[in-house]
Automatic annotation (TrEMBL):
Gene: frr
The species this protein was found in: Microbacterium testaceum
Protein name: Ribosome-recycling factor
Family: Belongs to the RRF family.
Annotated localization: Cytoplasm
GO biological process: translational termination
Gene Ontology MF: a single term: ribosomal large subunit binding
Keyword terms, alphabetized: Cytoplasm, Protein biosynthesis
Amino acid sequence: MIADVLADAGTRMDRAVEAAKEDFATVRTGRANPQMFQKVLVDYYGSPTPLAQLASLNNPEARTLVVNPYDKSALKAIEQAIRDMPNLGVNPTNDGNIVRITMPELTEERRKEYVKLVRGKGEDAKVQIRNLRRKAKDDLDALKSDVGEDELVRAEKELDGVTRAHVDQIDEALKRKEAELLEV
């Protein structure tokens, strides 16, 4: 029973770390990266649809991204969704067949803003990890009558180790993203 609680907590924490890494990828750096556009939702016939389902994203140059829609009638909606996306600061151009996005060079001030944004996202992810730890601890405390106190103390130490490892993973991903953002 203790092993089940710890395994469940570890799995949930793994998912939280992956979600944090995906969230970090959506913050733009000086280079064009198709992952930045994963959270773009396009109003396609009245329903919000992820951009990746409506178009292919190609990266022909370091600061240019080409969006080639599968359905040409969605071109205007795709262009509008990209323009409305917060924290991108891009102005897409539409030539009737494709949408071309040229990423402007980041200023030092904008880079620092993005670092603050990424740090906030990292802190949110750490809070989520700590909440998962708290829930797992409550689940372990509920087993107190079924298992010995020594086993419970050992399980809590193991849970703390798992939590620390996941927080360290988030810190490492955060450090890499900050270095990428500050690189000129």
